[in-house]
Amino acid sequence: MPWTIECPTLDDLDEMGRVHVQVWREAYAGLLPDDYLARLDPTIGPRRWRERWGTGPEVSWWIARDDKGIVGMTTSGPPRDDDPPVPLELYAINVLRRAHGTGLADELMARVIGDRPTYLWVLEGNDRAAAFYRRHGFTDEGGRKPEPDTGVVEIRMARGHAVR
Questions:
Q1: Tens-digit pLDDT profile for residues 107-119
Q2: Are strands 69-77 and 60-66 parallel, antiparallel or unpaired?
Q3: For residue 164, is it within any domain?
């Protein structure tokens, strides 16, 4: 599956919102409540992203396009936690199901964080994602928190951190 990876523009934000919601519905079915996934609004992300757009070069955004449109996206930046294990957080890596197993997620990961020490949060039970992150050198570093909207437990994974 051919794709191009590039930095998004303001014109991409609405499509990114639709893809974000579709990825959540595909990836989190059975992990998050069905009614919560059904209520996801694809316009909320772009509104928040527009407010933060251009706030600084420390946040990295990338999108991947195929012949049908945006098929994946990723973003990273400064930690949002009070006790980060390393100074970089992978905020999101989202790939539509149609691109699973193609290597696109690997390319997005390389683009957004490279081999730098990084941490991320993954939903407990999201075995596919956890395996992907382990393959990229991440381990469960012990952090736990409830996902803000549903209370489902998130697990913090990190690489390049001191073992606690």
A1: 999 999 999 999 9
A2: antiparallel
A3: no
